[in-house]
Write a structure and sequence with these properties.
Layout (H helix, E strand, L loop, with lengths): L1 H5 L8 E4 L4 H13 L9 E7 L5 E8 L2 E8 L2 H28 L4 E7 L2 H11 L4 E5 L5 H7 L2 H8 L4 E4 L8
Parallel strand pairs: 1-2, 1-6, 2-5, 6-7
Antiparallel strand pairs: 3-4
Helix pairs in contact: 4-6
């Protein structure tokens, strides 16, 4: 892919990195800047953050001796708006930090954020922005956690309408 972009046939190639607050996504962004800098020099790198949708329910834990009971309480419209505004501010701050990191490496970055479940929002953004390569960081959840929560990277590998590169953070072994 790097050769196609360098020899002029790929000047319109769009690369998107989906990030969140995790170290894994930061590592993926740094990996792109270190390893694909020449490939992304001709068009801006798109950095994407999914904002979780604000729900109208708040869940509280009620102690019942040893057992706990969780029950939802409907919230006011003001709470939902406040929560959504906080999600937006967090996403904007995360994107600005990523944009500064890119600028420090001499890479132009375009930032995009959408509201929705991360896995579907990422795949939707791939189609909407005609992305040619999606890059994600691997969280490294174990089998059980991945089965319960689902894997964003696995979902994107299966459903994104472009090639997907999942960057796995190297494990440091202590001797």
């Amino acid at each position: 892919m790097a050769e196609a972009m360098e020899n002029g046939t790929g000047t319109d190639k769009k690369v998107m990195v989906a990030i969140d607050e995790s170290d894994c996504s930061h590592y993926a962004l740094m990996w792109v800047l270190d390893n694909l800098k020449d490939s992304i020099a001709k068009s801006p790198l798109i950095i994407f953050v999914a904002q979780p949708p604000a729900t109208g329910n708040i869940t509280f834990a009620a102690p019942l001796g040893v057992a706990r009971m969780y029950y939802p309480i409907s919230s006011t419209p003001g709470y939902v708006e406040s929560a959504q505004e906080n999600h937006r501010k967090f996403a904007v701050a995360l994107l600005e930090k990523a944009k500064q990191i890119c600028a420090g490496h001499g890479v132009e970055a375009k930032v995009v954020t959408e509201i929705g479940d991360p896995k579907t929002a990422i795949c939707d953004a791939v189609e909407k922005h005609n992305i040619n390569l999606l890059i994600l960081g691997e969280r490294g959840h174990g089998t059980i956690k991945r089965a319960i929560l689902g894997s964003v990277s696995n979902y994107c590998v299966q459903n994104a309408k472009c090639p997907v590169l999942v960057v796995k953070k190297a494990q440091v072994q202590v001797a």
